[in-house]
Amino acid sequence: MLHKAQSLFGYLPIEVQRKISEGLSVPLAEVYGVVTFYSQFTLVPKGKYQMGVCLGTACYVKGAQDIIDEIKRQTGVAVEGTTPDGKYSLTATRCIGACGLAPVMDVNGEVYGRLKASDVKDILAQYQ
């Protein structure tokens, strides 16, 4: 039910959690506990363009932090945050299984690999 609600609303605000709690006759604290325990659920709206930068070992060693820093510089988005205009959100992810392409990022499921900080500008240009 939480997955369905998140797919409908894009996130799980407390009002939605309350309705789920009532509908399932489960304490709100239990619903909230599940939502905050699992990383696939979010309490805040995500941006139109959801960016994830892998910080797994291979990506980190090959410069993933530089990619994150450049995204932050160009968009103003904080890690685990969303820009005020709702355009971009940024997540620091763990291994996405593309270690041979390290460092990698994805935007709405589109994976970009073997990145340098200088590549970020061209990638973001595709999502203007």
From TrEMBL:
Reported cofactor(s): [2Fe-2S] cluster
Keywords from the UniProt entry: 2Fe-2S, Iron, Iron-sulfur, Metal-binding, Oxidoreductase
EC id: 1.12.1.3
Cited InterPro entries: NADP_DH_HndA-like (IPR028431), NuoE-like (IPR002023), NuoE_dom (IPR042128), NuoE_N (IPR041921), Thioredoxin-like_sf (IPR036249)
Cofactor note: Binds 1 [2Fe-2S] cluster.
GO MF term list: 2 iron, 2 sulfur cluster binding; hydrogen dehydrogenase (NADP+) activity; metal ion binding
Binding site for [2Fe-2S] cluster: 54, 59, 95, 99
Family of this protein: Belongs to the complex I 24 kDa subunit family.
UniProt-recorded name of the protein: NADP-reducing hydrogenase subunit HndA
Organism (species): Andreesenia angusta
